[in-house]
Design a protein that fits this description.
heterodimer; B: alpha/beta; six-stranded mixed sheet; 7 helices; globular
């Protein structure tokens, strides 16, 4: 143990005999612990929700999407499909037949603009012969068109066809087979249709606007995207499910950053008590600092004593806070202590997920803040006039 | 060889109401190996002179050389290292660090020099044996008597075998018996280690037992007349 650590630890241990210093030290440590615990619990709560949102995102979005840089449809859809199918870990490759139109329920007031596309093959129930094709409708579209499963919905395309009366819009009547609930920021179409219906509405008889693939492991999407880009060249845009949901991902990251910045203020306030605690020790130990200088201690060495003191207080508070925060989060999640109405939130309890990287970030922030708080009094100790300190302490 | 050579020293402190000039243009020289006493009335700057010579305070003007090394030419870090290797301080109020044991206090100069903890403790233990406090090594400094505390302070000052020992009224706060013991110890160690020692004292009897006596006044410092060494 270095001379500086030896002195710092002894000062801290001996502070128990100085009630005022002991009280401030305890407040500093507890303040830091509370701040760290609050931050760990807040981030775990957010991670719990966000992990579920990301899992749904990965489940509902295509993991890879290849579209042309120029033009509305793929110039060589077979080549794109082949490139995607040749990837390792690919589960399914589907064409994307998309377009815009209007959906209307039973009344004219219930008409609204919608985005439609083909549902992945096999996801919609087969329609009986002669019956309207099935459609999966988003919850918001279902609400605004006032339709429920089993009811009819008219999808009118922006595309027109010639008739004896002139150009008229292409329209298809579908039966709502399912209503899908999704978060507001999730990038999902308003209406999902069988491929033939989507082709009819969009006018894309063959080919596709894009091709989409699902992977066995969504985490590998980035690597797979680079591989497909290399094969297809610069004429194609290859996007992963994270890029396709970029606004939502950004919102989730922003939410976490704002919570971090807000709750971290508790740690900053706790650090202010560390400043006062260490400044008090510097004043009380002025004579000792003068004596240590007379024994040959350098100004840097005196400053290090107080930086170490800050680090020890910071380390203790941080360690305590991490222990409280992590154990509370784990217990809250494991025993589902905070319950939610499942019909409102799709979840039965508030989920908590402890991410080691985030805990490490909180711990590092707390420790750095505590040491930074000690810098000012440590510099004062280094600049101390030793002769004067000894002269005035007689 | 000169142990101390100080030329044109001036020092002014900022007092509460106005600056206080302690001395101006003071010269002081001391040969190596001498046990010198410095006497003079309170407030003439005896302690300040020791602090300047020891490099824990800086003069406003003037130069100080210790064994030919100019303190002004050294950086704060180099001056600290020089002090650790060459200069020992004993203060009137011992100034032991109260949270530490006698042994830990004596080991401080070694720890500051980078000596490993175990070795520093061993050396400190030997020195405490030498000053007659071998059985007190694990006692906290505040639990020792005044005389014992000052003997621990002497052991601490001598830990790094300094060439120059600066003692600022080390007996000023002790009863006659303890003062005699502490002075006797200083005199013994001075001879034993071949050091140069500067002792500030108000006690003429102790001063007379030194090799040389300096008298300090507002006018400066000069070898005393009227004392027989």
């Amino acid at each position: 143990m270095s001379f500086e650590s030896f002195v710092a630890l002894r000062y801290l241990a001996a502070s128990r005999r100085r009630a005022h210093v002991a009280l401030i030290s305890t407040i500093s440590i507890l303040g830091l612990a509370v701040g760290v615990a609050a931050l760990v619990i807040s981030l775990s709560l957010l991670s719990g929700f966000q992990d579920r949102i990301r899992a749904q995102m990965a489940q509902r979005s295509p993991h890879l999407r290849v579209s042309p840089i120029r033009g509305a449809t793929l110039a060589d859809p077979a080549r794109v499909a082949e490139a995607l199918e040749s990837l390792s870990g690919v589960v399914r490759v589907d064409p994307a037949i998309e377009g815009r139109g209007w959906a209307s329920g039973r009344t004219i007031e219930s008409t609204l603009p919608v985005r439609y596309r083909n549902a992945p093959s096999g996801e919609l129930p087969p329609a009986p012969s002669g019956a309207p094709p099935p459609a999966r409708v988003s919850a918001s579209a279902a609400t605004r068109t006032r339709t429920a499963p089993g009811e009819l919905l008219t999808i009118t395309s922006s595309r027109t066809r010639l008739s004896p009366l002139g150009p008229i819009p292409v329209a298809v009547v579908v039966r709502v087979s399912d209503v899908r609930r999704a978060s507001a920021l999730e990038r999902t179409p308003d209406v999902e249709l069988p491929e033939e219906t989507a082709r009819l509405l969009s006018g894309i008889a063959t080919g596709a606007r894009a091709y989409e693939a699902r992977l066995s492991d969504p985490v590998r999407a980035g690597v797979a995207a680079r591989a497909v880009s290399l094969v297809l060249g610069p004429a194609y845009r290859v996007e992963t499910w994270r890029e396709l949901n970029a606004p939502l991902s950004f919102a989730l990251r922003l939410e976490k950053a704002v919570i971090f910045a807000t709750v971290a203020l508790v740690i900053v306030v706790a650090a202010l008590t560390i400043v006062s605690n260490i400044a008090l020790t510097v004043v009380e130990k002025k004579r000792d600092l003068g004596v240590l200088t007379s024994l040959g201690a350098t100004p840097g060495s005196l400053a290090r004593i107080y930086l170490i003191l800050g680090a020890v207080i910071g380390g203790t508070g941080t360690g305590l806070g991490v222990a409280i925060g992590v154990s509370s989060s784990v217990l809250l999640d494991r025993y589902e202590i905070v319950s939610l109405p499942a019909d409102v939130y799709l979840l039965t309890h508030v989920p908590f997920a402890v991410h080691p990287g985030e805990v490490a970030l909180v711990a590092a922030f707390s420790l750095v803040t505590a040491i930074a708080a000690a810098v000012l009094p440590a510099r004062a100790a280094a600049r101390l006039a030793a002769g004067e300190a000894i002269r005035l302490s007689r | 060889m000169l142990a101390v050579k100080a030329e044109g020293l001036s020092k002014t402190y900022m007092g509460e109401a106005a600056p206080v000039t302690v001395f101006q243009n003071l010269d002081f020289e001391l040969e190596a190996g001498v046990f010198a006493a410095v006497m003079g009335p309170s407030g003439v700057g005896k302690s300040t002179l020791l602090h300047l010579v020891g490099g824990i305070d800086r003069p406003d003007t003037g130069r100080i050389e210790i064994f030919g090394e100019s303190l002004d030419d050294l950086s704060p870090r180099e001056r600290a290292r020089f002090r650790n290797d060459n200069i020992g301080f004993v203060f009137q109020f011992h100034h032991l660090l109260p949270e530490f044991t006698a042994e830990e206090n004596v080991a401080f100069p070694h720890r500051i020099a980078g000596v490993a903890a175990g070795e520093a403790r061993r050396l400190a233990g030997e020195l405490l044996e030498r000053v007659g406090l071998g059985d007190r090594r694990s006692h906290l400094s505040r639990s020792l008597s005044g005389g014992e505390q000052q003997r621990v302070a002497i052991a601490r000052a001598l830990a790094r075998s300094p060439r120059l020992l600066l003692a600022d009224e080390p007996t000023g706060n002790l009863d006659a018996d303890s003062a005699s013991v502490v002075f006797g110890l200083l005199a013994e160690l001075h001879l034993e280690r071949g050091m140069t020692t500067v002792l500030v004292t108000h006690n003429p009897d102790l001063a007379k037992r030194c090799d040389k006596i300096f008298e300090m006044s507002r006018e400066g410092i000069a070898p005393a007349t009227g004392f027989s060494g």
